[in-house]
Amino acid sequence: MTIAKSQKPSVQEVLERRIIHGLACEWELALNILDPLQQKFLRKPLFGLRDLKSKWGYWSADRNEICISRNLALNYPWDSVREVLLHEMAHQLAEQVFGAAGRSPHGTLFREACRLLRANPMPSGTYKPLLDRIKEPSDTSRDRIMVRIKKLLALAESQNRYEAEAAMSKAYELIAKYNVDLLEHENRSDFFSIFVGKPALRHPKEDYFLANMLQEFYFVRGLWVSVYVLEKSKMGRVLEISGTLQNIKMASYVYDFIHRYIHSQWVQYNKTKHFNRYRKSDFAVGIIEGFRSKLKSQSHKNKTIKNYFAIVRAKDSLLQQYFAYKYPHTVNIRKKVSPQNEDILNAGIKLGKQLVIAKGIIDKKIYPIRLITNK
Length: 375
Fold this sequence. Notes:
Blueprint: H1 11-31, H2 36-41, E1 46-50, E2 57-60, E3 65-69, H3 70-75, H4 78-96, H5 108-117, H6 130-135, H7 141-155, H8 161-185, E4 191-200, H9 205-217, E5 221-229, E6 234-244, H10 245-269, H11 277-301, H12 303-315, H13 317-326, H14 342-352
Parallel strand pairs: 1-3
Antiparallel strand pairs: 2-3, 4-6, 5-6
Helix pairs in contact: 1-4, 4-5, 7-8, 8-12, 9-11, 10-11, 11-12, 11-14
């Protein structure tokens, strides 16, 4: 008797299975925000990926299924996918718990479900995914300010150190002024939240230092949130930052820029020394702390920047309200401080004080979901 040999699944098949598992894990996580009675009546659905042409996802009450566009799942980052998942989960909550079947699909009960799940109520068919909304250019005064900042940061690439420092300082002053202008002249509600860095089961200590620096100097709020880690098929954590569109573009670029700078400088520093990964963290923390002290010094020396910061921190209640709504339950976790190599730390601090953030702010590249396999 001949038995058919089972075929090894393709990389895409493995990837899609992990994505579907990730959707189920994210659904379970979102369930925790509901009260026990609501959880009791919400049935765990089937999850699927399909080639959808006119929408990014849908909820099927007949099949008790949440389906996500294959294009979205394979070609967009996970925060864009999760946003659509929560939207469809809100449809499920509205029908199974609030009795919205037969009513307007995006009516009052659905919007209440979105409020409870912190889901985006905009239709997933006509509404652009999170990534596209962030990348979409517009001719507003805000974006024109960012173009001016970009030009200044291009000057920051100058070989003349004093010219580069002056350009970066001026750009930073303009960023602060932009935020003051928003507070004084606009009624804002257009906040975004995006992931920066990669989801992981564990993060090196420099990631936490960098997250704190972004909050301190770049007008965003950050939180380490639970998220599915595709490569590990488990839930881990990622840094999610919240703020205006221009501020999260700036902060996410700075995050990536400093990570690239750390890597390139560590390769040079460790070429002949062969230190381990833990010593790289000492070096990275030094760079971040050196750059942080530089920004702090600039803020104190430049009275204009100092005044702008005082105004923003005192008045930006709208971002605080948005943050409190989006994350109703948070806890503070203290990380155990590991022993540091002072020589390596100081070498990093020295380089951090010389760091100049250069051009590239508007055109930050965001990568879609990919499966990394060990060959």
